[in-house]
Amino acid sequence: VGNSPVLTCPHNSNISLLTWKISPSVGGPCSLSYRADQNKINRTNCSDSMNWQFRPDREPALEIRQVGIDHEGTYTCEVAAREGNFHKTYHLTVLVPPRLTLYRDEHGNPVCEAAAGKPAAQVLWVPESNSTSREEGHDNGIVSVLSKFTACSTNVTDATCIVSHPAGNQSKSIAC
After folding, report:
1. Architecture of domain 99-175
2. What DSSP line would sit under 63-129, residue for residue?
């Protein structure tokens, strides 16, 4: 989330028509088309975050500025050229890194929260314990994971929460 991915299309110097067809997971479809004979770009139902990149010396590309969950979906580039028709399809999935919070509950047990991530984060503890975890699902596949450390004792003085996620790993430690 927040990055600006660039999706490229098959490059051909003799392009007569190039179309990006976008089918988001949520909301209606949109398309961007370029007609070489008219040197004209047509935009249908696409947000301003879709930035057309078309230069003769580079592959035709579509930049999605500040990508968000609402950009998830299928992106297909179709090229009509003298040599034939070509297409390339992308299935865009947006990763949302969770916010890591570590605190003690009302009984003094460490609680690790990996909030609002997509997909759900994995929560591990060091030292390993019989922790209890629960997930709370939100809209658009966003998930919060709460894990309670249950092994605080006289011989365990610190607990470290490790959050594993495709968008990056994080860890925090707290005294028992």
Report:
1. Sandwich (2.60)
2. EETT--GGG-EEEEEEEEETTEEEEEEEEE---BPPEEEEEE-TTS-EEEEEEEEBSPPEEEEES--
